[in-house]
Write a structure and sequence with these properties.
Layout lengths: L8 E6 L6 E6 L5 H16 L5 E4 L8 H7 L2 E4 L9 H21 L6 H8 L5
Parallel strand pairs: 3-4
Antiparallel strand pairs: 1-2
Helix pairs in contact: 3-4
GO molecular function: nucleic acid binding; RNA-directed DNA polymerase activity
Keywords: Nucleotidyltransferase, RNA-directed DNA polymerase, Transferase
InterPro entries: Integrase_cat-core, Retrotran_Ty1/copia-like, RNaseH-like_sf, RNaseH_sf
Length: 126
């Protein structure tokens, strides 16, 4: 179901060390490459850190080999049907969705407000 702003998807980014989580809302999955570029620039500018690895599932939206090579980023993909390899993000993703569903259900809000429920979980995101 689209959100009030027309978003149908969201990208969850989790830092392996600190478990800090960023959420980016998307209208279509083709926005992922641009969001990855912006996120890389954000981390570099705000924290002075170069991203070393990006781990993702085998989604085509993460195929940005030229960008990864240019910035020295190693792109790791998980094997098919092995959630253990992306377990941290998968558990975080399920937790975020569970809390968002609970908030919507308990407050009797329309389902189209799911994006605001997600922002409760990660308030410092876009």
């Amino acid at each position: 179901m689209p959100s009030t702003n027309g978003h149908r998807y969201f990208l969850t980014i989790v830092d392996d060390k600190s478990r800090f989580t960023w959420i980016y809302f998307m209208k279509c999955k083709s926005e992922v490459p641009n969001l990855i570029r912006k996120f890389t620039a954000l981390i570099n500018t705000q924290f002075g850190i170069e991203i070393k690895n990006i781990r993702s599932d085998n989604g085509r939206e993460f195929s940005m080999n030229e960008f990864y090579d240019k910035h020295g980023i190693q792109h790791q993909t998980s094997c098919v049907e092995t959630l253990q390899q992306t377990g941290i993000v998968e558990r975080k993703h399920q937790h975020i969705l569970g809390v968002a569903r609970s908030l919507i259900f308990q407050s009797n809000l329309p389902h189209c407000l799911w994006n605001y429920a997600l922002l409760v979980m990660c308030p410092f995101n876009q």
